[in-house]
Amino acid sequence: MPLTPAWIATALGLAITGAFSWLAARDMRRATLVFLVTGWVPFVRVFTFHGSQIQQPLLLAEALPTVMIAIWWLRRARGPAPPLVPAPVNRPLLLMVPASALALLWSFGDLDPAVPAANVKLAVSLGQILLIAWPVGLYFVVANTAWDAAAIRRVRTALTIMAAPSVALPLVPAEWRSHITWSAYFALAAGPWLVAEAFEERTLARRLGLWIVALSPLLYGLVIGKAFLYLTTLVAVAAVVFIRARKTVGVGMLGAAGIYLLLVAATGSLTPGPLRDLLDVERRQQSWGGQAGRLALAADAVEIWSRHPLLGVGPGNSWPYMHRYSTLDTPHNQYLNVLLEFGAVGLACFVWFLAAALKTGRDALRRARDGPARNLVIGWLALFIGMIASGLTGDYIFHSVRNGGLLLFSAYYFQWVLLGLVVAASAGGGDGA
After folding, report:
1. DSSP notation for 98-145
2. Is the pLDDT at 273 greater than 80, yes or no?
């Protein structure tokens, strides 16, 4: 059979995965760095999941963490293993996987007869559980690997280099952007860390350069009308500024309020022109207002959940239920998606994780003594706060397999690596490299 692009991509994916397995077995820190800079690559596939309406390939973002998790687990299973590095996030994250599995088992006996059974696929549900297991497992691998200051600096350098092309995204023609779009997600992850460092830079040029890279996802999001990018960046950067310069935040807020009042007085409208433009983009994209707006989708999701309150409709099943009872096939909301698919039990675990993650960041910030370690913690904590806010617009922490989740994970796995680094650096240990 002649080689097709799909066969070539699969063969390449298997070869890369095999080589990566060798590296991970020898040095998990280096493997983590390699994964960090290659996991986003979209054209390498190892397997393809098939659903009722979609086909999604298993990308390096999923294949490489599978290798890391397997090797780490086998090492621990072979002999006396040290206890897991302690962190408040450990317990809720460990509960997310069995909670999703329980929701799957429960859904078999709680299927709505008005929802076509052909649209409720076991393979898709298992894929959804994997989309929870991958980030959770990735976190535990990174958190329980020994990291020194030099290795963390290499992570920071790699993220910054990969993020640098994002500066050009708002400037290049639309037809060229697809070649460097991936860099916006590196900038999203690295940006808060860079802003934290900018407060310590002595030269204006370096400080300005760090800010430009950090704000590039915001500018790109405004150009293409993607609320997630500008909302996450804005909240994350604001969180860094609040942590690093609390005394000036009040002055800045007063200044912003004054500018807003001047705009209202000048235009006679409570929504100044730039804000109206953003809202118009959201309306054209059917994200605001109307039967397909966020509020309408939220109401539909809550109505569906109310019939399956404890464990939801099952992992990966928001699509067939929303398809039957709503105008769109997804709630477009992280919290509602978890509530709908995993019920009150799943949402409780998820909210517990969010609160525990914030506590993890706060505790790590209190323990961090030197500048680089403190900047890492501030950067991750600010990024996570931004992700909590943007969860109102989509599933960017735990992705939906029916809503491009396998591809989304290849753009947002950075947050899990950084969380693991924060925990490992704060504990000052791990299982070894």
Report:
1. HHHHHHHHHHHTS--TTS-GGG--HHHHHHHHHHHHHHHHHHHHHHTS
2. no
Is the pLDDT at 249 greater than 70, yes or no?
A: no
Nearest CA-CA partner of 234 in 382, 346, 349: 382
* 356 CA to centre of own chain: 17
Task: Give residues with Cβ within 8 angstroms of 273, minimum separation 6.
Answer: 267
Question: Does 433 have pLDDT greater than 80?
Answer: no
Q: Is 234 exposed, middle or buried (0-12, 13-18, 19+ CB in 10 A)?
A: middle
Identity of the residue numbered 245: A
The CB density around residue 390, as the number of other CB atoms within 10 Å, is 23
Contacts of 375 (CB under 8 A, 6+ apart): 193, 196, 197, 200
pLDDT of 12 higher than 70: yes
Helices (H), 3-121: 5-26, 28-38, 60-78, 90-108
What residues contact residue 108 under an 8 Å CB cut-off, 6+ apart?
Answer: 314
Nearest CA among 353, 321, 422, 379 for reference residue 85: 422
Closest of 52, 41, 75, 68 to residue 431, by C-alpha: 75
Q: Quick check: 380 and 221 in contact, CB under 8 A? A: no
Q: Which helix (H) or strand (E) holds 344?
A: helix 334-367
β partners of residue 59: 45
Q: Is 195 left (phi over 0), alpha (psi -120 to 50) or beta?
A: alpha
- Rounded to an integer, what distance in angstroms lies between the CA atom of residue 337 and that of residue 381? 23
